[in-house]
């Protein structure tokens, strides 16, 4: 629900008073002009000066009204651009959106998703993952940057901001929520970006886990298996064998 502030009311009231004042001045101005025309060349010069001053006041009042109106429109536009609606989907809605979670909220006006930890995330899938980590006491950071490996001759560069970072495991978690989007062009671009990120992670020996929308119904089993695989070194694998 949008509430109109007291300042907005005051601005509107001031503008209304100015308009009425200007209307009164214009009526007076018109009457004086008629009078001057009626008495032809017998007017007092002081009357002419007064009439000129009145016209200046009318012009200033008109400019003030225009400025006030423009300022209120700008304020309304700014308020509309920065209005954000927060929405936490019910379990039933989450269940129906797990198969195709392609509704990321890149648009500022669309709904945001609030996690159990009180954070704002961009999609239902990210909310489900964050809530899963929270409920299972898995420490995570949302959208922490992943960097290339720096060398003596080459400085580090940011690759991207994966959805989650698990500091206790030194593992990033990417939720590829738009991989099944219905828009073919968007899907192709998204997959290309996804593959590029995966290549960069591998090149820089960055451990990561990929989660897809169709994994969310069996998240606990799938995530644990992929986390185990991501954190298992070659030495660990040989020792297990």
Question: Helicity level, as a percent range?
Answer: 40-55%
User: Largest sheet at a glance?
Assistant: 4 strands, mixed
Strand order of the largest sheet: 3-6-7-8
How far do the termini sit from each other?
62 Å
Q: What structural category do the secondary elements indicate?
A: alpha+beta
Q: State the assembly state of the protein chains.
A: single chain
User: Which architecture of one domain does the CATH hierarchy give at level 2?
Assistant: 3-Layer(aba) Sandwich
Q: What are the segments in which pLDDT stays under 50 over at least 5 consecutive residues?
A: 1-10, 75-109, 237-241
Count the DSSP helices.
Answer: 7
- Overall average residue pLDDT: 71
What is the CATH topology assignment of one domain?
Endonuclease, Chain A
Q: Specify the CATH class of one domain.
A: Alpha Beta
Strand fraction band?
A: 5-15%
Could you name the CATH homologous superfamily of one domain?
A: VSR Endonuclease
- Gross morphology is rod-shaped
Along the chain, the helix and strand elements come as HHHEEHEEEEEHEHH
- The radius of gyration is 33 Å
Tell how many strands the DSSP assignment holds.
Answer: 8
Describe the secondary structure blueprint for this structure:
Layout: H1 6-38, H2 45-81, H3 91-97, E1 113-114, E2 120-121, H4 124-135, E3 141-142, E4 146-147, E5 158-160, E6 164-166, E7 171-175, H5 184-203, E8 208-211, H6 219-231, H7 234-240
Helix pairs in contact: 1-2
